[in-house]
Amino acid sequence: MNAADLITKGWELTVSWRNEAKILKSPFNYSVKAILSDSRAWITKYDNPDGKLSDYYVGYEIGTIFGFVSNELFQSPDELKNHANQGMLWTYPDKVPPPGPGDIKIEDLNGDGVIRTGNTIYDLQDQKKLLAIHLLVTGPALCSTVIGKELT
Question: Which stretches does DSSP call E strand in 24-94?
Answer without folding.
Answer: 26-45, 70-73
